[in-house]
Amino acid sequence: MTDSRTGSPAVAMRGIDKRFGAVRANRGASLEVTTGEIHALVGENGAGKSTLMRILAGIYAPDAGTVEVSGRDVTGWSTAQSISAGVGMVHQHFMLVPPLTIAENVVLGREPKRGLSVDMARAVLEVQGIAEQFGFDVDPRRCVKELSVGEAQRVEILKTLFRGARILILDEPTAVLSPPEVRDLWRVLRRLRDGGGTILLITHKLDEVIEVSDHITVMRQGRTIDRMATAGTTPGEIARAMVGRDVALVQDVMQPDRRELSHPLADLSDTPYVLGVRDLVVSAANRARAVDGVSFTVAPGEILGVAGVEGNGQTELIEALAGLRPVVSGAIELRAADGARRDITSLPVSERGELGVAHIPEDRHRRGLVLDYSVADNLILGSQRRFTRGLVLDAARIAANAREKTRAFDIRPSDPSLAARTLSGGNQQKVVIAREMGSDFRVLLAAQPTRGVDVGAIEFIHAQLRAAREKGKAVLLVSAELTEILALADRIAVMYRGRIVSILARTDASQEILGPLMTGAGADGVSAA
Amino acid sequence: MTETLSPPPPPPLSAASPERVTGDRAHHLEEALLPPLVALLIALIAGDALILIFGQSPGPVYRLLLEGTWGNWYGFGQVLYKATTLAFTGLAISLGLRAGLFNIGAEGQLAAGGFGAAITGLLLPASVPSMVVAVLAMAAAAGGGGVVGWVPGALKARFGAHEVITTIMLNFIVLALLNWIVAAHVHVPETLHTPEMHGGSLARLADISARFHGSAANLTILLALAAAVLTGWWLFRTRAGYDLRAAGLQPDAAEYGGIRVRSVWVRAMMMSGAIAGLGGVNYVLGYKHYYEEGFAGGSGFLGIAVALVGRNHPLGVVLAALFFATLSQGGLAIHALVPKQMVEVLQGIVILAVAAAVPEVRRLLQATRREDER
Amino acid sequence: MRVIDFLTQTIRIAIPYLFAAAGGVIAERSGVVSLALEGFMLSGAFTAALGAYFSGNVWTGVLCGIAGGLLFGLIHAVASIRYRADQIVVGIAINLLVVGLTRFFLRLAFESSSNSPRIAGLDTHGGLGHPLIWIGLLVIPVLTWVVYRTPFGLRVRAAGEHPEAAATLGVTVSRIRYVAVAVSGMLAGLGGTYLALDQHQFTDGMTAGRGFIALAAVIFGRWDPMRAGLACLLFAAAETLQIQLQGTQAIPSQFVQMIPYALTIVALAGVVGRSTAPAALGRAD
Which among C96, C108, C215 has the least Cβ separation from residue B348? Predict the structure, then answer.
C-alpha cells in the first residue's frame, strides 16, 4: 500500500465529459480518492454519479478528461482491463446469472481450470475462503436465483474480491437492503478498508454518508461541486452542496405553497373522500408483499404526497390503483360525484378510466406513450373508445382534440402529427399530462411527474397539479424528490418496505423529519445518524 | 424474445399537416426504402456471380428474366397468379408483426384454407348456385386458416408459449393432418388431390381477355387487392387497429391505455391465419378446383420475405409480392441459360440482406442525424 | 431379434437428430435462436456428397460436410450478431437459401435436378459399425461435459441468460456466440453428412424437416443436452415403430410424424413440466 499522504491517489479523475445523445451526464467532473478510505459520492438523482463510476470501471469511455488509477493513466480502458487492475464494481441492478450457482457466478470469466474443465471444487473452496475472510455466510453451491437480495449483493462483492479488487465501487448498495443487512454491509466495508482496500460508495442518503465514509465528493448536474472530510461536516452542509445555491430556480419552483390548507388533518376523517384504499396487499416479481397492507384516503381538493426511497412499494401501489397490477387482498374504492361508493378493486384499466381515474405513469417511455405514435394518437391513448365513429377512429375529432391540447398545454413543437419519440422529455411529459388532466377526472395518480424534465416543465407541471387541487380533484403524488413532495402535498404519507409508516400534515413535516422515516428509523428503530 | 420480434417502426399514417412534417416523413421513407434497395443491390451482385459461375453472362439472363415475366401476357399472368398467393401470406404475416407476433405458420394456414374451400365445394350439392358455393368456400378458407392461426394465439395468451415455435410446429402438424385426411378419405385414386368441386370456381383472366391464355391468373387477384385495402384500413383507420398496433409497438403502454394485450394477440393471430387461409382460394377456386397435397409450396414461408421487404405496409406488401412472384416466374424463363434454382438463391439472399440491413440502416441514419444536429 | 433390430434402427435414425440437436442446444444456450438447423443439415449433406464424390473418400466427405455446416453457421452468426438482424428471419432465410443453393450446385456439379451420383458412404449393412455413428452417440455426453464443466460452457450459459452480467466480467459475449453458432453449424452439418453418407447420395431436400425435429427435441428437452438427446431417441423410436408397423395400418404414419411437434407444443404450453428458454434467447445484445 502506498502512503495515502505522499503516494498517488487510488483514483484521480479530471475534467470528465460524457454525453448520451442530447443528455450531458458528466461535464468536467472530477474525483480524487485516497487509498484505504471509504469515499462517498453523493448527489441527487441524475447528478452523474453512476456515469462517472461506470467510466472508472471501464464500462463507458469518457468523451473528454483523464482517468488515473494508482498513478497510471487508464483513460478509456476496457472492463477487462479495469478488472485486472483491481477495480471492481457492484451495480445497482445486480449483474448475476440467476440459474448459475454462486461459485459459477463468481468465477465466470476467470475460471480455475483442471485440464480442460472448470475446477469446480477449487472454485467452491476459493469462494468459501474469501467469504469466510470477510465474514460472509454463503454456500457457494447454491443457485443465485434462490438468494435474498442481501445475499445476492454479497455475491456481487465476492465477485470483485475474487478478482482481487483493491478499489471497490458500490452503486446505491443500500437501496434494496433491510436495516440489519445494511449494518452487515457497513461491517464488511470497514473490514475491507482496514485491510487496505479503497471503497467508493455512490449514494444519496446522507445518514449513510455520515455513518461510514471518510471523505465525501458532492456532484450536481454532472459536475463535481465539493470534496470534504466527513469528520467535521453536517448533513445540512452536504445537503446544501447537493442542492446548491445556483439552482435557486429549482428552489423557486419547489417553493411550498403558502395558502391555507383546505383540509387540516383533524377534519379529514369527516370529509368525504374520493379515493379510499383499505388494507391493500400487492405482490411483485421479487417480493410477495411489495405493498404490505396499506390504507389511506384522498379527499377532494387534496394532494396526498407519498414519500419514500424508491423501491419501497410505491410503483406497485400506483400500478394496483391504476389497474395494471392485480391486488392480492384489500380494497380500492372510488366515490362518485353523487357520493355513491364504487368498489374498483378488480375493474380493468379502461373502466377505471371511465370512472375518472387519471394516471401519470412513472415511466413515460415504457408506459405513458407509444413512442412511434403521433402526438395526436398519443393524446387519445386510454380514451380511444370515445374517439370513434362506429369501428373507425374519428380523425377530425382526434385532430381537434390534439389542436386543443397542444395549445392548452403548450406542447412544442405544436405539430401533433409528429411522432412522440421526436419530442423532448419535457414535452413528452406534457403530452401525458395533457391527456390525463385535459379531460374530466376525479382522481389523479401522479407517479414521478417531473422526472427527467427541465425546470420550465417542472414549473408547468406543478402549476397543473395545484390547479387540479383548486378544482377539487383528489391527487395522489408519488415522488422520489422530497422537495417536490414538500412543495405540493397537503399531507405526506411515508412508505417504507411496503408499508405506510406515517402520515403527516404538511405543516408538521420537514426534510429532517421525513428523512429518518423514509429510511425506516421510525419503524425499526434504526439510527439514521 | 418479443423484443427482437417486434416489427420495425412503421411510417405513421395518421393525418399529417403538410410542411413541418416533411423532414420527419422523409426520414421514415428513407428508413423504409433503403434496406430493400441495399438488399436488391446485394442480390444483383450475388446473381451476377451465380450466372458467371454457370458460364453465362448476366445481361442476357436478366433480359430473359424480364421478357419472360413482364414482357408477355402469359408470363405477366403467371406473375399475377403467384403474386396473389404471396400477397395473402405477406399480408397475414405483416398483420401479425404489427401486433408484435411472428406468424411462421402461414404455410399451414394457407393449406388449411385451401382445404376448407375445396371440402366446402365438394360437400355442397351440385344444385347450389356457383356464386353461393364460391362465397361459402371463401368463408371456409378464412375459417380454416383462422382456426389454425387461433391455436398459437391462444397458447401464447393462455400459457405464454412462444408463437414462433408453436406456429412452426403447427405447420408440420396441420400438413400431416391434412395429408392423412386426403389420403385416407377423400383423394382421387392414384393422385394426391381431392375430387373436383361441384361449383364455385372463379373466372380466370384468360376468360376475360384471351391474351392471358394459359396463365392461372384469376379473379382472386381482386380479392387480394381488397384484402390489402381492408387490412390497411383496419390497421390504420379503426380503433381495433389502433389497439393492435399499440400492443405491437409497446405492450406496456397499450396495457396502460386499457387495451387487453392478450386478447389482441388471439385476435391478431386469428385474423392473420384467416388472411393466409384466404390465399388458398387462389389455387383451389381460381386454378385447380381441388385441394392437392403440397399446393402451398413454400408460399407461406416466402410470405415472410414479402412482409419483410414490404415493411409491413399493405402497399409495400403488394409490391413485394409482385417482386417475389417475378423472381419465381423469372426462374422458369431463364432456365434455358442457368438453372431456375438461381432465383431461389436470390430470394434467400434478399431476405438475409434486408434482415441485416434494416437495423444497420437505422443505426447509420440515426448517427448521421445526430451529426446533423451538432 | 426384433428388439435388437428395433434398437439398431432407432439409433441409426436418431444419429442426425443427435448431431443437429446438439448444435441447437449450444447455439440456443448462448442466446441465438436456432431455426436454421435444417439449412445447416442440408448444406452439410450436400458438401459431404460433393467431397465424397470427388475424392472417393468418406472422411473427406465428412470434413466437407462439417465445412458446409460451418459456412452457413458463420453466415448466420455474422448476420445475427454483427448486423443484429432478427435471428428468426435469418434462420428462415438460410433455410431457403440453402435449398436454392444445393439445387443450383446440384445442376452445376452433377447436371441433375434431383440427386447426386452414388458416393462412397457408410457400409454398415444396417448395423452400427461405423465411427460416425459412434461419434453421433458420443456427441451428447461430450456436449453435456462442455456445457456444464468447461469454462466455455459456463460462459455460453451466462451469455444466454444474462449477457450484460457476463460482459461486466470481461466476457466477450459476441465472441462466445460466434463460436457457439459456428459449432452449431458444424454439428448440424455432421448430421446432414450422416444422411448423405448413409444413403450413398445427396438428394434434393433430403433433410425433409429433420432440422425442425431436432429443434423440437431441443425445446422438448428444455435446452438440456441430455434431455434433448433422449428426446431425439424418443422421436427416432416413434419413427422406427411407424416403419416397422407399415403395412399393418395400425396407426396412420401421419400421426407418428406429428409426435415430435405435438409434444413440443405440449411442453411449451407447460402442460407437462414447463419449458423455459434461456432468458436472453433472441435478443440482439
Answer: C96
Q: What is the pLDDT of residue C284?
A: 64
Q: Do B345 and C100 touch (CB under 8 A)?
A: yes
* DSSP state at residue C128: S
The per-residue pLDDT for C194 is 96
Q: What burial class does residue B372 get, using C-beta atoms within 10 Å of its C-beta: 0-12 exposed, 13-18 middle, 19+ buried?
A: exposed
| CA gap A483, A470 in Å, rounded | 21
Instruction: Say whether B344 and C270 touch across the interface (CB within 8 A).
Output: no
- Asked if residues C71 and C192 have their Cβ atoms less than 8 Å apart, the reply is no
Q: In chain B, whose CA is at the least distance from the CA of A365? A: B253
Average pLDDT rounded to a whole number, residues C166-178? 92
Nearest beta carbon to residue A97 from set C145, C149, C162: C162
pLDDT in tens, B290-299: 999 989 889 9
For C221, which DSSP code? T
* Chain C residue at shortest CA distance from A116: C150
Neighbouring-strand partners of residue B238: A392
Name the amino acid, one letter, at B293.
E
Minimal CA separation from C139 to chain A, in Å: 17
User: What DSSP character marks residue B184?
Assistant: I
State ipTM.
0.89
- CA distances in angstroms from A477 to A126, A306, A343, A351, C162, listed in the order given: 49, 6, 21, 22, 35
Taking the CB of residue B219, how many other CB atoms lie within 10 A of it? 20
Query: Looking at chain B from residue 16 to 55, which residues have their Cβ under 8 Å from any Cβ of chain A?
Result: 16-17, 20-21, 24
Interchain contact A108–C (C-beta under 8 A)? yes
Q: With CA atoms as reference, report the closest residue to C41 among C191, C196, C206.
A: C191
Q: Does C112 touch chain B (CB under 8 A)?
A: no
Beta strand A275-282 with A291-298: parallel, antiparallel or unpaired? antiparallel
Q: What is the mean pLDDT of residues B158-168?
A: 91
Nearest to C137 by CA among C148, C126, C129: C129
Q: pLDDT tens digits, residue range B212-247?
A: 888 899 999 999 999 999 999 999 999 999 999 999
Question: How many C-beta atoms lie closer than 10 Å to residue B248's C-beta?
Answer: 29
Contact A109 C145 (CB under 8 A): no
Query: C131 CB near a chain B CB, below 8 Å?
Result: no
Which B residues in the span 47-66 are in contact with C, Cβ-Cβ below 8 Å? 50, 53-54
Identify the burial level of C250 via C-beta atoms within 10 angstroms of its C-beta, where 0-12 means exposed, 13-18 middle and 19 or more buried. exposed
The average confidence (pLDDT) of chain C is 91
The pLDDT of residue B12:
35
CB of A385 less than 8 A from some CB of B = yes
Confidence band for A470, pLDDT divided at 50, 70 and 90: very high
pTM: 0.87
Chain B neighbors of C160, CB-CB under 8 A: none
Alpha-carbon distance of B191 to B295, in angstroms, equals: 13
Beta strand A388-389 with A357-360: parallel, antiparallel or unpaired?
A: unpaired
Tell me the pLDDT tens digit for each residue of B331-371. Answer: 999 988 888 888 999 999 999 999 888 888 878 887 776 66
The pLDDT of residue A284 is: 85
Strand, helix or coil for residue A32: strand
- Cis status, amide bond into A413, omega within 30 of 0: yes
Handedness of CA B347, B348, B350, B355 (dihedral sign): positive
Q: How far is A85 from chain C (nearest CA, A)?
A: 12
Q: Are the C-beta atoms of A401 and A379 separated by less than 8 Å?
A: yes
Residue ranges of chain C whose CB lies within 8 Å of a chain A CB: 145, 149-151, 154-155, 157-158, 161-162, 164-171, 279
- Which residues of chain B does A370 touch, with a Cβ-Cβ cutoff of 8 Å? 245-246, 249-250, 253-254, 257
Judged against a pLDDT cut of 70, whether residue A444 lies above it is answered with yes
B299 contact C CB<8A: no
